[in-house]
Recover the amino acids of this structure.
């Protein structure tokens, strides 16, 4: 509050002119090294919470202050500047027909500011605005709608940068869609928490959201085709065993696939992971990269196989994974490009995170007694102890309970 009083006095004395600044806001921005919008808000708030220069007596101070309740709460240290900004912004937007309610609105907001953070207080201010000025609130929404924008560009290292400003309705849709997909993964049996940052979880949630969208039959078609990801790669580079390609484990020269959407490249390891559960369209190109022949697409995991895998593995068969975000992906234990069949006994359901983990960390997967088992790489477990995965099998439970539940006696055969 002391700072606001000094700002108001400096503005009244026009000190910014003596310092060569074009306005009090510009002078304050340079003096305190703050953002321009913050400087503007502080100058306006200073004028609204301090007595005007025409106040000649102490009795007229309260009448001369535009926001007396806010000024008192600031002076007592009961609220902060951010709270006061919310109050001032709400009162400035009141329509003429509701100006007589300004005192009541200020008292209500300051009362709630004692126990609410500025963000929550702003929600109450919005509610007041919608109650007292429905037409103005509607105009604000239309202005937000007109100001909407989303830009994306590919950076030099091949990543995609996205910048968006969404109106409140679209923003709420985005939050509702991404929140259930970006939550932290459950702790492992060893008590290890999800190591991802909030930003990484949100990025993974967006990736899962895109998977859901691309798999939706309701998406509009372009050129008669559903939205799809197109990757072009040399067949031999995709087919060879990447782990044995070179001594240092790197892919051979030229072994990269191109993403047609962005013109960026992907490693064969990533392409093999993507191809585990996708439609593959063989397209033979000549030396000039012109199509010579097009084969028929094949789905590596038909609906009946996916149903069987979901019944056996759940959303993800990886040990310790519980309710993973995103859509499950059918992984070939022996990759189809290496001749692995598309059968239940050669496939396992994995979430997007563990699908990537299996491909990158050399986890070994096998089907034993109809259930997937996982062996970690040696850098995680030198003994590579097998861990059971998938859902609990009713048959296995029944076998374990046989020792506790006696077999029912068979009725004696009728000898007559």
């Amino acid at each position: 509050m002391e700072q606001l009083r000094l700002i108001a006095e400096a503005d009244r004395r026009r000190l910014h002119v003596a310092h060569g600044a074009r306005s009090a806001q510009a002078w304050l921005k340079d003096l305190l090294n703050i953002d321009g919008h913050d400087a503007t808000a502080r100058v306006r708030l200073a004028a609204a919470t301090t007595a005007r220069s025409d106040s000649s007596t102490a009795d007229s101070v309260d009448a001369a202050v535009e926001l007396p309740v806010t000024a008192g709460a600031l002076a007592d240290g009961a609220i902060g500047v951010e709270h006061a900004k919310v109050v001032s912004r709400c009162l400035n937007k009141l329509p003429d027909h509701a100006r007589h309610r300004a005192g009541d609105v200020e008292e209500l907001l300051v009362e709630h500011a004692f126990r609410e953070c500025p963000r929550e207080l702003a929600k109450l201010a919005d509610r007041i605005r919608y109650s007292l000025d429905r037409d103005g609130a509607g105009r604000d929404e239309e202005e937000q709608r007109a100001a909407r924008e989303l830009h994306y560009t590919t950076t030099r290292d091949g990543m995609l940068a996205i910048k968006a400003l969404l109106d409140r309705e679209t923003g709420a849709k985005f939050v509702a869609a991404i929140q259930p997909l970006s939550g932290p993964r459950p702790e492992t049996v060893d008590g290890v928490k999800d190591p991802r940052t909030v930003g990484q979880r949100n990025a993974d949630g967006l990736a899962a959201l895109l998977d859901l969208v691309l798999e939706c039959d309701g998406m509009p078609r372009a050129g008669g085709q559903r939205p799809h990801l197109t990757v072009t790669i040399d067949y031999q580079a995709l087919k060879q065993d990447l782990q044995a390609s070179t001594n240092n484990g790197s892919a051979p020269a030229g072994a990269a696939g191109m993403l047609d959407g962005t013109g960026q490249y992907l490693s064969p390891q990533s392409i093999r992971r993507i191809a585990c559960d996708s439609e593959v369209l063989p397209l033979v190109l000549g030396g000039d990269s012109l199509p010579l022949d097009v084969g028929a697409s094949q789905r590596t995991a038909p609906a009946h196989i996916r149903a069987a895998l979901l019944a056996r593995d759940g959303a993800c068969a990886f040990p310790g994974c519980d309710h993973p975000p995103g859509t499950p992906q059918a992984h070939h234990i022996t990759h189809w490009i290496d001749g692995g069949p598309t059968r239940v006994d050669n496939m396992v359901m994995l979430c997007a995170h563990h699908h990537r983990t299996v491909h990158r960390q050399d986890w070994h997967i096998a089907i034993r007694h109809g259930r997937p088992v996982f062996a970690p790489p040696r850098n995680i477990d030198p003994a590579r102890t097998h861990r059971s995965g998938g859902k609990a099998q009713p048959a296995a439970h029944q076998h374990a309970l046989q020792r506790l539940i006696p077999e029912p006696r068979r009725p004696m055969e009728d000898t007559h």
